Protein 1
Amino acid sequence: MDRKLLLVGLSAAVLLAGMALGTVLFSRASELRGAAYAEPYPVAADFELTRSDGTLFRLSEMQGRVVLLFFGYTACPDVCPTALAELKLVLEEFGHDQAEDVQVVFVTVDPARDDPTRVQEYVNHFNAGFIGLSGAEPNLVKIWNEYGIFRETVNDASAAGYQINHTARVTLIDRRGRLRVSFGFDATVDDIVHDVKLILKQD
């Protein structure tokens, strides 16, 4: 075989291999459908809040499971029930065994009305396995700030008395307690299921 042709052929093969590798690396980086955190993945801020039975919940105790964390309140007229209904559908996409690897945690942004019992009763309407949490406002303020949760009380003439405008996103924390993906309110059930399955495979 002509040496020049052989060199050209080898160069072309190397170029194609490089392009293929670049395509694989790029596709891996863009596989997640939510907003992915950059490496090195930040550690999710640990916190303690009160469960409905009076015991303390520690986020760090969830390591080994993927956590889907959402902040809301029980008197929310639309955003919170929609988000929880979607998270219920997310868990239904997993078999019983795999669903145990995923934990939904709901933290109130309305401690004046939401005691731990009320929050847990609220999330139970969607899935009895969800964890609903509340606590003292100073502790919650620290948690809201650590997770970038905007919260604003809005006076309302309705029987509810007031509403709360708040950040509505689901934060995915991986098995090692790291922030991996954030989902905006427009994320679909399929998007969240896709990313949870991907993170479970990686861990």
Protein 2
Amino acid sequence: MKRNLLLSLLVLALPIMACTITLPTPTQVTTGPTETLAVNVPVPAGATADSPVKVTLHMGAGTLKLQSGADGLAQGEIDYNVPSWKPTITTGPDRLLIEQTLPQNQGPSVLFPGKDTELVNTWDLKLGQAPMDLNIAAGAYKATSNLSGLHLRNLTITDGASDSQVTFDSANPEVMDVFTYETGASSVKLTGLGYANFKVMNFKAGVGDYKLDFAGSQQRDATVNIDAGMSTLSLSIPSSTKAIVEISGGLKGVKTDGTWTTHEDTYSTTGTSDYTLTIKVNIGLGNLTLTTDK
């Protein structure tokens, strides 16, 4: 299964690799017995309503499952079978860092299993309800993150070749100042973004397939900045949301589904919401689909 995951992620990265003059030499790693690192971190003493905890998850190639439900700040298990990949857990008065430090010649983009071996690097984590700034940094990975129930002040996700799903299905009780997502050659699906309660969202992507669903009760005016390369991009807007989509870049064709008003490169919807969602899209060659629910 892990081998299939890495091969799938490699396929996603091929369009970018094709544009590169020189390719890195794949590095084989030596696997051993699967080990488990238990994670059980209480809420730090320095965490207050005025001082959110800085939570950072830094992993290499593998699988991430993330959700709410921890009794303290973080709970769960990390399974790995490459000894040098054992993560470290660092805590402080107002921070938590779970980090997997890879040797310099084992960057996530060039990790391959050795002959007749399988890589294991599975993070299954829960986070608690302390107000937090959450930062997720990963290489080639598959991620399923349900962030409902978390108290997020800021959210940053950075990954390479990924297959990632991020879900909000209930309102974030905190005002999120900035939500940043940066990815390479990936397949990314973000759902329930109306629940995220952000002021500003920045989405930057390379070659890939990207679906952004803004379902949820929008609680304020919000701006989304999207910068994508040769991509397939789909934006889904609830019919109750007042949305303005401004398009720039090399894209010439836009497909719409639902009720949209068009004026040159601006597409808009009328909704019953008191707030406006402004989306600025800069996209090169690719496909853009704008959808409103019926």
